[in-house]
Amino acid sequence: MIDRPFNRRRALLTLGGAVLAGGLAARGWAGGQSYPTAPAMPADAKVFETILTAAPHQRLLANAPSDILDYAADGPVVLRMRQGEWLRAKMINRIHEHTSIHWHGIRLPNAMDGVPYLTQPPTEPGESFTYQFQPPDTGTFFFHPHCNTVEQLGHGLAGILIVEGDEARPHDADLVLAYRDWRIDEAGKFKPLFTEAGAAKAGTFGDHRTVNDKVQPVYQVPAGGDIRLRFLNLDMSRIVDLGVVGADAWLIATDGNPLPPQKLKSWRMGPAMRADLTLRAPMTPGTRVQIVNYYAAQPLVLAEIEATGPTLNRPPFEPAALKPHHIPEPDLATAETFPLRLTAATAPGGGNASELPPDLVLPDGEVLRYADALCLTPNTFWSFNGRSWPMQSHEVLPPPLVTFQRGRSYIIEIINQTPHMHPIHLHGHTFKVLSSNKEEIMPHFADTTLVAPKERVKIALKADNPGDWMIHCHIIEHQDTGMMGIFRVA
Ligand code: C2O
Ligand code: CU
C-alpha cells in the first residue's frame, strides 16, 4: 500500500473524498484551487515598499562562510514601518524550490498569509509574489517561509518586521535582538537540520548560538539612556528563559502586544515568541548589561549592551507603558470551548485509531486506512486531537479541525498530553492567554504560547478574521511531522 503510485492514490481520494468523514477540503487540489483574495489598497494609502529576494548567500557565521538562504546577504533584514502605512513587499524567489512569506503575528487578510496551497499558489523559482496589507497593530513581528520550513528557515530565511508608533515616550536606543542557533560545524558547513530523534522529541538543536547572526555581540548604547530591547526567539527548537543581568528590566510587550510594564525576572519563550523590554542603561560608561538565557544548566550570555558616554541626564527611570492595542476582547461569558489536545501521532496502519474517521472502502473493496489516505509516513510523530497533518500537504489538505463562527468568541483549551514542550501558534488572530493549570498566569495577548508537558492552557479569541488559518507547533520539526492543522473562520 505504501508503494501505490501517487496518481492512483490521488484519483482514489478524489473519488472517495466524500466518504471520508467531513470530506477532504476541496481546495489545494491540482486544477481545483480557489484562493482567497485581499482587499485592494486605497489610492491614497501611505506605502512602505520593499523587495525581498529569497536567495542563496554566503555568510560568515563561524570560521568559514556558510551557504545560507536569506532575503539579504548580510544579516537578517529588519523592516521598520509606521503604523497606518501599508506594506507592499515583492518577494522574488531565487532559491531552488518554491517558497512563500508568512507574516507571523500580523492580523492580515487571509490571502496575504503566505501559506502555499491554502492561501496562495506556491511561488516557484524565478517567480515573484507581492504581499500587500496594512498591519493593524504596532509591535515586534517577523516573517518566514511556510514551505519546507525545516530547510528554508533552518538555512536562514527569515526577517524582522517592526511596526512603530507604540511609544508614548521615545527611547534613546531601540535594539533588535534576533536569537537563533545554526546547525553548522566549525567549518561553517550545515549539519542535517532534520533528525528523526530530534523531531520525535524536543527538536534538533544547533550549537552555534547567535544574536543577529553574531556570537555574543556587544551593542553600545548611551549611558544613562532609556533602552528598548526587542528580543525575538527565531530558533526552530530552542526555548529561552529570557533574563537581564546588570540592570532592572521591564517587560512591556509580548509577541508585540503591549502590557502594563512587569518587572522582569525571566520570561519563558518558545520558538517564534517575542518580548519587548525597557531598561535604563548604566550611568558609568564601559559598564555592561547581559542578556541571558536561564533555560540552561548555566545561564548563557546571549548578547551584551555597553554604556558609552557622554552620560545622558534623564529624570529617574519609570518604565513607560506602550500605547495599547485594539485587539477585540473575547467575550468569555458567551465563549464556547474547543479542546485542542497535543498528542503523539497515530502510526500508519496501527496505533490508536479511535480518533480517526472510519476507513475508506474503495470501490474495488480495498480498505484504505485514513492515515494511509493522508500519506502519513513513518516520520509522522505528532498530532492535534489525534489527527496528523498529512506529509504531502500539497497533495491533500485535511479538513479543518474546527470551524469558528465569525464574530463569536472561543476559548481554546490546549491540553499537552506529550512529554515535550510545544509553542502553539495561530494565524490571523491575536489571542489572550487566560490561565494554566500549572502556574499563575498574567493574562496577556500573544500569537504563540508555550505549553509544557501535562499543562492545560486556556486561550481566548474573537474569531473575527474570515478564512482558513493554520494552527501549529512552532518547533518546526513538530510542525513538519504532523502537529499542524487548519481552523476555519466562516
Ligand atoms: Cu511563524 Cu505558521 O508560523
Ligand atoms: Cu511541538
What labels would you give this structure?
490 residues; mainly beta; Immunoglobulin-like; six-stranded mixed sheet; 5 helices; 32 strands; 6% helix; globular; disordered N terminus; binds CU-O-CU linkage; binds copper (II) ion
- What's the structural domain tally? 3
- Largest β-sheet summary: 6 strands, mixed
Helix content estimate: under 10%
Oligomer: single chain
The CATH topology of the largest domain is: Immunoglobulin-like
Q: Ions, cofactors, ligands: which are bound?
A: CU-O-CU linkage, copper (II) ion
Write the SSE topology.
Layout: H1 6-16, E1 47-60, E2 65-70, E3 77-82, E4 86-93, E5 102-104, E6 128-133, E7 139-144, H2 149-154, E8 159-164, E9 173-182, H3 196-199, E10 208-211, E11 218-222, E12 226-233, E13 240-245, E14 249-254, E15 257-263, E16 267-269, E17 274-280, E18 288-293, E19 300-308, E20 336-344, E21 360-361, E22 367-368, H4 370-373, E23 382-384, E24 402-404, E25 409-416, E26 422-426, E27 431-436, E28 444-446, E29 448-451, E30 456-462, E31 467-473, H5 476-480, E32 484-489
The structure holds CU-O-CU linkage and copper (II) ion.
Summarize the structure.
With 490 residues, this protein is mainly β.
